[in-house]
Amino acid sequence: MGRGKIVIKRIENTNSRQVTFSKRRKGLLKKAKELSILCDAQVGVMIFSSTGKLYDYASKASIKATIEEYNKLKGDQLHPANPSSEVKFWKNEVATLQQQLQSLQEDHRKVFTEELASLTIKELQHLENQLEMNLKCIRMKKDEIMMAKIDELRQKGSLIQQENLDLHNQAMCHIKNIQVHGS
User: Fold this and answer.
1) What does the alpha-carbon distance between residue 142 and residue 126 come to, in Å, rounded to a whole number?
2) Which of 70, 33, 29, 73 has its CA nearest to residue 49?
3) What residues contact residue 158 under an 8 Å CB cut-off, 6+ apart?
4) Do 106 and 58 fall within a single domain?
5) What share of the chain has pLDDT > 70, as a percent?
6) In a domain, 162, yes or no
7) Do 86 and 80 contact (CB within 8 A), yes or no?
8) Rounded distance, CA 20 to CA 32, Å?
9) Domain count of the chain?
10) Which residues does 11 contact at the CB level (< 8 Å), separation at least 6?
11) Whole domain around residue 109: which residue ranges?
12) pTM
């Protein structure tokens, strides 16, 4: 049986907050060390407690050396030595994104064509139910929009009829005035 989910929010009780901080800090630092050892990765973690105390872990040399390495690498990415390396970077980025898009499109195509044949009756029924529910939601939204549009057109029609009636009454008054004063 797994652990229950907890709501992530500030712990109000000071003692409970300190105990949780201590346990989670130890767990985070342990995970950082394991990541470093298992994957031969350069890892640096800094934690400042609410009292301002610093806890850190650096897999190689010191946390300062890790930060310097980070700044050096990040600076090279943001400000490459020459513009051609920046162009190469963006070309690689575009190529990567195009590959990801192509892969997603292929996955999408498979799901809605080839792989339907490999689904069981139960899976097909579930997919059909989902599609019907989605279609029902789409129809309800369409009907809602159409009803709103109909109401809007009715209101406009009523306003136009009222304006027409007002203009008709004004015209009739104008004609009567001409007949009374003009004859």
Assistant:
1) 24
2) 29
3) none
4) no
5) 87
6) yes
7) yes
8) 18
9) 2
10) 17, 20
11) 98-169
12) 0.40
pLDDT, tens only, 7-42: 788 888 888 888 888 999 999 999 999 988 888 888
Q: If you ran DSSP here, which 8-state letter would residue 52 be given? A: -
Is residue 71 situated within a structural domain?
no
Give the pair of three-digit tokens for residue 43.
């890892």
Classified as helix, coil or strand, 41 is coil
| Core vs surface per residue 55-79: b (16+ CB within 10 A) or e | eebbbeeebeebeeeeeeeeeeeee
58 and 109 both lie in a single domain: no
- Answer yes or no: are the C-beta atoms of 56 and 46 closer than 8 Å: yes
- Are the C-beta atoms of 78 and 72 separated by less than 8 Å? no
Token pair, residue 119, equals 């689904």
Judge whether 56 lies within some domain: yes
